[in-house]
Write a structure and sequence with these properties.
Blueprint lengths: L8 H4 L2 E5 L5 H8 L3 E5 L4 H6 L5 E7 L5 E9 L6 E9 L5 H15 L5 E5 L5 H9 L3 E5 L2 E7 L3
Parallel strand pairs: 5-6
Antiparallel strand pairs: 1-3, 2-5, 3-4, 4-5, 6-8, 7-8
């Protein structure tokens, strides 16, 4: 099934999601500390990549040159069966919001086989993140003093 992509982004940006590779670490490190964080709480990159319980790490790349432009950490069956939690969505720069939207669309399409619902924690200090998720059709839910953006994935 082809995901619904934001605007004309898919026509101009050949992007893919794929598992993170060792060769991705250096390119991600160049932009990670200044990345736009649209979900989760940033942690040192080495902690994220070295953690054995980090869930699934995927990179959003420009399919032309395979250069990572985003990093997504997602956990399936979190917080319970049938859910997926985006623990981190970090994008190389503010002009990459459409790229991030494409990455979320690709992630949703992939997760439909594994989860019926998806959620992402919105960083409290990044108002842009709230509007990003709202624009994608997510709804806000406050739980445990945290703002989550949630969405049901279509079957």
């Amino acid at each position: 099934m082809k995901p619904e992509l934001p605007g004309a982004v898919a026509a101009v940006l050949p992007a893919v999601l794929r598992p993170i590779r060792e060769a991705d670490v250096e390119p991600i490190a160049r932009w990670y500390d200044t990345a736009v964080v649209l979900a989760g709480s940033p942690a040192p990159l080495s902690d994220l990549l070295d953690s054995t319980d980090r869930g699934r790490s995927v990179v959003l790349t420009d399919d032309t040159n395979q250069e990572p432009v985003g990093l997504i950490l997602v956990a399936v069956d979190d917080p319970e069966s049938g859910w997926a939690t985006v623990n981190l969505l970090a994008i190389a720069g503010p002009e990459e919001r459409d790229v991030a939207a494409l990455g979320v669309a690709l992630l949703e399409a992939h997760l439909q086989r594994e989860a019926g619902h998806i959620r992402a924690a919105v960083p409290a200090d990044v108002g842009l993140a709230l509007y990003f998720w709202l624009r994608l059709g997510y709804r806000p839910v406050v739980s445990s003093e945290r703002l989550w953006m949630t969405r049901e994935l279509a079957p």
